[in-house]
Design a protein that fits this description.
483 residues, Hypothetical protein af1432, globular, 3 domains, two-stranded antiparallel ribbon, mainly alpha
Length: 483
């Protein structure tokens, strides 16, 4: 085992009471799953709120477990090419599994909607330069805000696992966004070119830790490139999203066969001549977008074959019969998921010199296009629904009100002794992290603390806490929120 990869940031002497495994990478896995931040993922939205659909749908915890399952299978496959894998820095299944389990620890309440709202509030309202980002928050948790014993050191993970968590190994205002083309996620949002990279892996407060974690990979992978193990985790995340989230929307009856069939079949008839405002136009827009952004992989024949395969196996297969909870329906969902997961995993290959917008671990051309079509189906026929938008607008307002209410509590001089202890601890942590002479240091520390606090809630805790702060809850003692 490479000592530089296995090294812990704070040294081998800091052993947690729960560490039972002999392998440092298995110790990392155990520390992650023992963390309360991992436990809270059971109450955090994946696509459909777990509070509104019972046991039928994935939450962030079950999603993370499935990503870990897929990631380990890919790592074992990629590891067969041991010479290339070692040349690029290694591909240990335990490292990959640990990173997959940790990749969503920083995901806030209410799915990606919560991520966007907290980022807007952090930058526009609280004037925090690097705002909020779920991946950077995950890295912050494993390095800073998770407390073990008397030291605020995070989970004290090995270099290899911390590097594998870094899906986007740059900061918000780092140089990666100026590359041409920029790595996937590094470009600024089209509607906010001054915002910095849309996706990034670490805040400025954790940048030294990020550089230390990646030091063992210097000269093996580019500074802006994922490690092989991070690339495996990223690919597994894509596969799990494309397949397992479709299971959810089928189970609850949200994904309708007719609408999906009309879109796919219209494109198969009209192709590049499809009317943008009618059936077939949206998927033609996707085809053109892939050529524009991912010309290194986009292929019209593979795209057409992927549309046909999804039409045959999803539209004429899984969606042909509404889910009714029967054993037969359950078996059909399981068979669809298993078949697609195996096909995608078995297509993965290790590439020595990938395109800038790719990683060293890639799906084969055909399967890459299939994932794009599956993700399109979900984006077009689930995430764009007006009823989901209605629900999310309410959640966005709730998060905004919660941030304002907590900030008001923090700044109330009469309440200094009655603040939630965790909130006070987070203010102290954020204050220590800021350089001496930082303008409005206390204001920035309070802002980051409130964002950290809210991001660490479950969906139900966020709702219950806002009800209490609004005076609408009659419960004085409740486990719905943690103070």
């Amino acid at each position: 085992m490479d000592d530089s990869r296995a090294q812990r940031l704070f040294g081998e002497s800091l052993v947690a009471p729960g560490d039972l495994a002999s392998s440092p990478f298995r110790v990392d896995r155990d520390r992650i799953v023992s963390s309360p931040f991992f436990a809270r993922l059971a109450g955090v939205t994946q696509v459909i709120s777990p509070g509104g659909a019972g046991l039928l749908v994935h939450n962030r915890m079950t999603h993370s477990l499935k990503v870990a399952q897929v990631a380990r299978a890919i790592a074992e496959r990629v590891g067969r090419d041991s010479d290339l894998a070692e040349k690029l820095g290694g591909c240990d299944p335990d490292v990959v599994e640990a990173a997959a389990l940790a990749h969503d620890l920083g995901h806030p309440p209410f799915g990606h909607l919560g991520e966007r709202v907290l980022d807007h509030l952090a930058r526009q309202r609280l004037r925090i330069p690097d705002g909020f980002e779920g991946n950077a928050q995950s890295y912050r948790i494993v390095t800073s805000t998770e407390i073990r014993g008397q030291a605020t050191i995070g989970l004290n993970l090995t270099n290899a696992v911390r590097a594998a968590i870094l899906k986007y190994p740059w900061t918000r205002h780092g140089d990666a966004r100026y590359m041409s083309p920029p790595p996937r996620g590094a470009a600024a949002p089209p509607d906010d070119p001054e915002a910095g990279s849309a996706k990034f892996g670490a805040y400025l407060t954790e940048v030294d830790d990020m550089l230390a974690a990646r030091l063992a990979f210097a000269g093996r992978v580019a500074d802006w490139q994922q490690t092989v193990e991070a690339s495996v985790m990223d690919t597994a995340d894509d596969i799990a999203y494309a397949i397992h989230d479709l299971e959810d929307v089928h189970r609850v009856g949200v994904l309708q066969q007719g609408a999906v069939a009309a879109e796919l079949m219209a494109w198969q008839r009209w192709g590049s001549e499809a009317d943008p405002n009618r059936a077939g136009g949206a998927i033609e827009s996707l085809r053109r977008q892939l050529h524009s952004k991912d010309g290194w992989m986009a292929d019209d024949a593979a795209f057409a074959a992927a549309v046909e395969l999804v039409r045959a196996e999803l539209v004429d297969g899984l969606l042909a019969r509404p889910f009714d909870g029967s054993l037969e329906a359950e078996a059909q969902v399981a068979a669809f998921s298993a078949t697609w997961t195996r096909r995608l995993v078995e297509s993965v290959e290790l590439v020595e010199q990938p395109a800038v917008r790719s990683g060293h671990v890639q799906l084969a051309t055909a399967q890459w296009h299939e994932v794009q079509i599956l993700k399109f189906v979900q984006n077009r026929f689930v995430l764009a629904r007006p009823d989901l938008a209605l629900h999310q607008r309410g959640q966005a307002r709730l998060l905004g009100s919660l941030v304002e209410a907590l900030l008001a509590w923090l700044t109330d001089p009469d309440e200094a002794e009655r603040l939630p202890r965790r909130l006070r601890d987070l203010v102290e942590l954020a204050d220590v992290e800021l350089p001496e002479g930082t303008p409005d240091r206390l204001g920035l520390a309070r802002g980051r603390a409130v964002i950290d606090f809210v991001a660490g809630l479950t969906d139900n805790q966020a709702v219950a806490l806002m009800e209490a702060l609004d005076g609408r809850s009659r419960q004085l003692w409740t486990d719905a929120f943690v103070l």
